[in-house]
Amino acid sequence: AHIVKSFSRKDTLNRHLLVHSNEKLFKCSVCNKSFSQKSYLNSHLRVHSNEKLIKCSVCNKSFSHKSILKKHLLVHSNEKLIKCSVCNKSFSHKSILKKHLLVHSNEKLFKCSVCNKSFSQKSYLNSHLLVHSNEKLFKCSLCNKSFSRKDTLNRHLLVHSNEKLFNCSVCNKSFSHKWNLKSHLLVHSNEKLFKCSVCNKSFSQKSYLNSHLLVHSNEKLIKCSVCNKSFSHKSILKKHLLVHSNEKLIKCSVCNKSFSHKGNLNTHLLVH
User: Fold this and answer.
1) What's the whole-model pTM score?
2) Which domain holds residue 64?
3) pLDDT band at 26 (very low <50, low <70, confident <90, very high)
């Protein structure tokens, strides 16, 4: 109970009041206002009863103003805070964090496919994904999978280390990376390995030759009587015949037509 001390003289009371001059006053925990008596503080606290209070995320203490909370947070500035890995909320004690983690215990976490960060709600993940929207992603040239960091891509490439997915259409050599194949193709850039048997035009790739052969599909071809090779123009045949000029040809005794092989002559003789 509160004891009220009485005095017979006013000057005696004034001297007594000096005893209380250094007393610890009653302070409001919400706005830090001080009062000389507890009853005054209790009356004052009704002012805050309908206020929307701001809570400290570390110790859960409530404040009426953000500025007061900021000042209060300095108390925790030197504390070693423990962060929740799910929502990044900070706690001063491991025991408080453990209690908090029960909130997330039944949650289905939403993981970011770019950086593997986890979120408790899909909406948080969607907001987070905007961070990566302007990022230059590193794409795997083999399987098109994207990565946010080059070192992650390099680790991923080890998966393909024994694969040889890219074939050279000229010499069938295999490469594990597309850029290796591109570099290799420069070797063949001046080569023309595939020759058209009709007009002797050369091509660097078989696919180009096949496309070209369609040009000759409706042509009336002229055959070499010596080796049966076909040509689209008489002038080309004449040039070709020079190949056989030094050959020892076998003549048909009936029509003087020449052949390079006896077998060809025998086939021809059936005409006569």
Assistant:
1) 0.20
2) 10-76
3) confident
